[in-house]
Amino acid sequence: MVYISLVFIYYSSNAQDAYIYPLNFLRLKNNYIFENPAASTLTEKGEINLFHSAFSGLLNNVGINYLDASYSLGKPNDTPIHTFGITIHSEYETEILKRNRLYLRYCRSIQLSSSVKLAAALQAGVFNYLVKSTQNSSGNSSAIPDASVGLWLAGRKFNIGISGVQLLASEIEPVYRTYALGRYLNLFMDYRKEISANTDLVLGMKLYKGKGYYEGLWISGTLEFMDNFSAGFNYIWKNGPVISLGIIKFNFLKIRNDLYFSYFHPTSTNHLANTGRYEVSIHIYPFNVGEKDQPHDEDIE
Q1: What's the CA gap between 97 and 129, in Å, rounded?
Q2: In DSSP terms, which residues pair with 185 in a beta bridge?
Q3: What is the three-class DSSP state of 122?
Q4: Which residue, among 146, 181, 142, has the nearest Cα to 17 in the 3D structure?
Q5: Rounded CA gap, 125 and 140, in Å?
Q6: What are the tens digits of pLDDT across the range 122-152?
Q7: Is 124 left (phi over 0), alpha (psi -120 to 50) or beta?
């Protein structure tokens, strides 16, 4: 169980308190709904997201499997719009340790004007810490409640979201020590700029802060071009760069999909967990309604 203190556990300054935080996804937008349920306002009538992310090198048996699905009631320009969703998030360290999250969420969106909408959302469920038995030790499985809330302001060219994550700070004792789900605040921002007739530049950032030295800043730039391609670069403060490539808005079995591959290359040697990591994500839009209707040209520049 060496990985438990390398990847997911953060300690306070006196090393007495230990906090569990989720591992971030590499592509910035892949974190939106998981860390801010109000980002559900960006989803289409129906949407399914599947992610797999894993470390390479030293930690090649450590990673995440993820599924979320959303469904919105009403038409895109209705107000309010009610969006319901489910998230399944599983972090694994070999076959022995797993941290599983199962959440349900509700998001309510209202139009503030023809160009701007505001969403508020709640996400709640259970966190499960599973330790499988081995020849030398018995296994254990514990579950605790968890919840997050978020606000999201969305326009045709910009997004701003703030959320409180793991708000219950529930405690769990899977193996000989008590850990708490660490509360943290999360801020997302992005802005879309058309730079040519068939090319958009999307600039984004993520800022987060929690207990036990859990803090970070992401800066992101993504080019979407020729209607079907995406190329992006993230820089994760004190860790290193991420390159992302995508094929977007393509049809498979008459259903629209987006497919992305991301790779993180570490530039920091602060801890052993900072090895290379890859991520594959697919976004499925089963109702094939195309781009979600956004307010038009009056949007805030």
Answers
A1: 8
A2: 164, 209
A3: strand
A4: 181
A5: 20
A6: 999 999 999 887 777 777 899 999 999 999 9
A7: beta
pTM beyond cutoff 0.70? yes
Contact (CB, 8 A) for 42 and 32 = yes
CA distances to 76, 109, 183, 277 from 258, rounded to whole Å, are 20, 24, 32, 21
Instruction: Copy the structure tokens of residue 258.
Output: 């987006």
CB-count burial class (<10 Å; 0-12, 13-18, 19+) for 79: exposed
Decide: 263 and 245 in contact? Cβ < 8 Å.
Answer: no
Reading the block at residue 56, the tokens are 């390479």
Classify strands 179-181 and 18-20 as parallel, antiparallel or unpaired: parallel
pLDDT tens digits, 161-212:
999 999 999 999 887 788 999 999 999 999 999 999 999 999 999 999 998 7
CB neighbour list of residue 195: distance below 8 Å, 6 or more residues apart: 201
- Here the tokens at position 188 are 């997302």
For residue 283, give both structure tokens: 């976004």
The torsion angles phi and psi of 22, rounded to 5 degrees, stand at -70, 150
Contact 292, 43 (CB under 8 A): yes
Structure tokens belonging to residue 1? 């169980």
Nearest C-alpha neighbor of 179 from the set 2, 16, 56: 16
Choices 2.40.160.60, 3.40.50.980, 3.10.310.40, 3.40.50.720: CATH for 19-289: 2.40.160.60
Chain-centroid distance, C-alpha 287: 23
- Could you tell me where the beta strands, DSSP code E, fall in 197-254? 199-210, 215-225, 229-236, 240-252
Task: Give the number of C-alpha atoms closer than 13 A to the C-alpha of residue 197, restricted to the C-beta side.
Answer: 0
